[in-house]
Amino acid sequence: MVASSWNATHSVGIAILDEEHRTLFELVNELTRAVHYGRGPRGVREILERIIEADVKAAAVAERAFSGVECRSFAEHRAEHAYLRGRLRAFLEILDPADPTQPLDLILFLSSWLTDHIQNDRQRFGPPAEGPVQ
Ligand SMILES: [Fe+2]
Q1: What integer pLDDT is reported at residue 40 of this predicted model?
Q2: If you measure from the C-alpha of residue 99 to the centroid of ligand 1, how many angstroms do you get, rounded to a whole number?
Q3: 86 C-alpha to center of ligand 1: Å?
Q4: How large is the average pLDDT for residues 81-97?
Q5: What is the pLDDT of residues 37-79, one digit of tens each?
Q6: What is the pLDDT of residue 129?
Q7: How far is the CA of 122 from the centre of ligand 1 (A)?
Q8: How far is the centre of ligand 1, averaged over its atoms, from the C-alpha of 83 (Å)?
Q9: Which fold is adopted by the domain 8-124?
Q10: 3 alpha carbon – ligand 1 mean position (Å)
């Protein structure tokens, strides 16, 4: 589970990427609360759609910021986010209103993805000692 909020230890050293990850933390926590409090498949679907939408917007912002820069690290970062959106869209297609526990697997996936992705980004970009790049 994503039991914490985004904090400086999650920084990958690039402000726009940190902001996209911060938003994902918030939405995954919101999804976790929605499942915990039994908001049901409609609530889960609504939050998943918001996660996808937020990720699409963040990807567009990052794309503009990195435009014209040939960077394998950014390409890898972009591919991981595209994979995330694909998994979420696939989950939306199989979301079963009769199974209230189904989103638990999704939350585990999201938590694991966030942890791995940020770790990968920290290795790719590395937060500078003086703090995130603005
Ligand atoms: Fe990212």
Answers
A1: 83
A2: 30
A3: 15
A4: 94
A5: 888 888 999 999 999 999 999 888 888 888 877 788 888 999 9
A6: 54
A7: 10
A8: 11
A9: Four Helix Bundle (Hemerythrin (Met), subunit A) (1.20.120)
A10: 19
Cα of 19 vs centre of ligand 1, distance in Å, is 9
Compute, in angstroms, the gap from residue 91 CA to the centroid of ligand 1: 20
Query: What is the residue whose two structure tokens read 């938003």?
Result: 23
pTM for the model stands at 0.85
Expressed in angstroms and rounded, the spacing between residue 17 Cα and the centre of ligand 1 is: 6
What integer pLDDT is reported at residue 133 of this predicted model? 54
